[in-house]
Amino acid sequence: MNKAQQSLIDSIGGTPMVKLQELSDIYNTNVYAKLESSNPGLSVKDRTVLNMIEHAEKEGKLEKGVSTLVEATSGNTGFSLAMICAIKGYKCVVCVKDKASTEKINAIKALGAKVVLCPSGVKADNPRSYYRTAETLSKLIPDAYYINQNYNLNNLGAHYATTGPEIWEQTEGKITHFISSASTGGTISGISKFLKEKNEDIDVTAVDSEGSVLKHFHETGEYDTSLKRKTMLEGVGKDIIPPNVLMDNIDRFIQISDKESVKNILHLAKKEGIMAGGSCGATIEGLKEIAPGLNKNHTVVLLFSDHGSKYLSKFYDFDWQKENGYSNEKEDELTTVINEFYFNNNNK
Ligand SMILES: Cc1ncc(COP(=O)(O)O)c(C=O)c1O
Asked: 234 CB less than 6 Å from ligand 1?
């Protein structure tokens, strides 16, 4: 047994990696998922936020009971921030895009943080965008500190120091391919920097959303804002080029469809018992794209960023599934038995 920990902060990191049997069989290779949902905040962002706060503390920028930490986030960073602020005694303001799931917003509030909802469909430089709102509020609020996960390189530093080494150890150095979604880019860049220093041949695929500016920038060096498009997935793709995306460490960007990614997680839950967030389904789409080049000697690691319980009112809600064309409730033998039982019982 592990010893009792002093706070939830001590249980951040050290997440499990599990083999995905069905995908390994289909593609005749070895596919593993690194389950970041096992962090106490149920996402990869616990690591990032902890590292950014600890660096700010070391630099003397924060004072317990006085400082207010402000951030713009798709939700997971907000939850991790609210959780760590509650433990450490900082005030917290989180600016969230209005497409964030209700669970994420309520959970951030439950941890004592203030939530500011910002429109999803506006450009990054619009004063109402979540970036500008966070920036403005951090100037208005006394003793505020803007975490700024897009530009704060302690974001990727967290994954270079912890997630990358864990993946290397858990695969006993056998990893040949790594796939992760990219938004701020901190996760994929920190991990791939560490892995490529160990073995420069490790192939790194970033999963991007349709309408994101990242893939186009990687391929052409151009920042094209006309590409912007609203998507359903949270934490996949970006409308700015954050310095946390280390473009040279990424071999390719693949743009995936929201629809297929959601189908993947609904199937995964039933096949492997893993209830994963939407961006995890996006990494499975990435796997499908690179699959023709894979064989038995390869070890592929998919970074699963968060837990499906963050999307109970969205991807895992049956009404939502029907409205969005995912009616996956099939009539099978079990349903027939249950329906007959109800019918007979209610008609006695
Ligand atoms: C669910 C989810 N997946 C993936 C990511 C991408 O991580 P990163 O910002 O490190 O690129 C995020 C980031 O917010 C996220 O919330």
From this structure: yes
Does the beta carbon of 283 sit less than 6 angstroms from any atom of ligand 1?
no
* Token pair belonging to 99: 């497409």
Cβ(41) to ligand 1 under 6 A? no
Q: Is the CB of 186 under 6 A from ligand 1?
A: yes
Alpha-carbon distance of 290 to 298, in angstroms, equals 12
Residue ranges in the chain assigned as alpha helix (H): 21-26, 45-58, 76-88, 102-110, 130-140, 154-158, 164-170, 186-198, 214-220, 258-272, 278-290, 318-323, 333-346
> 1 CA to middle of ligand 1, Å?
32
Ligand 1 centre distance from Cα of residue 180 (Å) = 9
How do residues 18-54 score in pLDDT, each as one tens digit? 999 999 999 999 999 999 999 999 999 999 999 999 9
192-212 pLDDT, tens digit per residue, is 999 999 999 999 999 999 889
C-alpha to C-alpha distance for 144 and 346, rounded to whole angstroms: 61
Residues whose CB falls within 8 Å of the CB of residue 164, separated by 6 or more in sequence, listed in order: 190, 191, 192, 193, 194, 195
Rg over CA atoms, the chain: 21
Residues 253 and 171 both lie in one domain: yes
Q: Could you identify the atom of ligand 1 that is nearest to the CA of residue 245?
A: 11
Whether residue 337 lies inside any domain: the answer is: no
Q: Give, using CA atoms, the residue closest to atom 14 of ligand 1.
A: 235
Q: Are residues 22 and 114 in the same domain?
A: no
Q: 283 CA to middle of ligand 1, Å?
A: 12
Q: Do 59 and 163 belong together in one domain?
A: no
Query: Which amino acids are annotated catalytic?
Result: 45
Would strands 17-19 and 252-256 be described as parallel, antiparallel, or unpaired? unpaired
| 33 and 53 fall within a common domain | no
3 domain-assigned: no
The parent domain of residue 258 ranges over 8-41+153-323
Q: What is the pTM of this model?
A: 0.94
For residues 195 and 251, give the distance between their C-alpha atoms in angstroms, rounded to a whole number: 13
Residue 148: closest CA among 95, 109, 192, 194: 95
